[in-house]
Design brief:
The protein has four helices and no strands. It has about 90 residues and is mainly alpha-helical. The longest helix is centred in the N-terminal third of the chain and has 26 residues. It is flat, with a radius of gyration of 29 Å. The chain starts with 6 loop residues before the first helix and ends with a helix.
């Protein structure tokens, strides 16, 4: 027969797992964020973001494919000709 585990052992295992997870998160945060000394008011960014912003503004706007307009037209027509579908569709959302 298997003996039931003691609660103290189970909690100790959970604590060590939690500690290792917290240590991993702490390490990843330290890698992602610069030290506090660099975050003062005089700190500069690692790179200039303005050229990226200009490139993004110069890009052409997103174009919607024709079948999206067709689906919109079909659903609009269905709502006009079969208004009883609107509550049924709203119910299923």
């Amino acid at each position: 027969m298997k003996e039931p585990e003691k609660e103290g052992t189970k909690e100790a295992g959970n604590n060590s797992t939690e500690r290792s997870e917290f240590a991993d998160i702490r390490e990843k945060l330290r890698e992602a964020l610069p030290p506090l000394g660099q975050l003062e008011n005089g700190a500069e960014l690692r790179r200039d973001l303005w050229p990226d912003m200009l490139r993004r503004l110069e890009q052409s706007p997103v174009q919607v494919p024709w079948f999206d307009w067709a689906l919109l037209a079909i659903s609009g027509a269905a709502a006009i000709f079969f208004p009883a579908l609107i509550p049924a569709l709203a119910y299923h959302l």
